[in-house]
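Two records follow; treat each independently.
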Amino acid sequence: QVQLVESGGGLVQPGGSLRLACAASGDIYTIYTMGWYRQAPGKQRELAASITSIDNTNYADSVKGRFTISRDNAKKSVYLQMNSLKPEDTAVYYCHIDLMRYSDFEVMDSWGKGTLVTVSS
């Protein structure tokens, strides 16, 4: 019904950069807030960054100044530019959106399947 597909994960050395992308499709009328969550092994999922429909952004303190979130409404996509990566950034990164469904105007949310980011020497 609503699909989120992430890309851009991989292995990178400490201090390196990576750019994640997420494209949404399916039964979507309007997308509200879009965000990137991450989950490291044995830890709870946490919000890394989010961006509203009017481009207001919010970042976790741990990524502030290093990560930049952006969106392209025409492409129904959200991006996460990750710079100065640290081993502590290693996690599965999940795309998340709040949306209104086209078929019945229901407000709901949706998750991607995740993309693995590994920061290691």
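The next record belongs to a different protein.
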Amino acid sequence: QVQLVESGGGLVQPGGSLRLSCAASGFTASSAAMSWFRQTPGKKRELVAHITTNGGITNYADSVKGRFIISRDNTKNMVYLQMNSLKPEDTAVYYCYALRGSGFGSWGQGTQVTVSS
């Protein structure tokens, strides 16, 4: 019963901010590297941000560097994506992804982020 439940998506104006949350259950969050992906119609799902099991190392897509921050709180089995200075190009469905040491990955249900005036 591995499950990732996302929240925090919505409609924001350009230049605004949102924080996405991902609640993990069914496994120990600290045993999994976590990522955020996003996808728009007609495009492949792309990696936005990645964080190691203990949060020691993070990586970002070039398009979001300096604007987005991925973090995690393993005591709460939570992963976050703070999104600042949002642009219309950031509009997408955002997905939480957990990759366990076994090699199996799990996806969240996705949450819509729309950046528009």
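Discussion point: The two ends are 40 Å apart (CA to CA). How would you locate this feature using only the token line?
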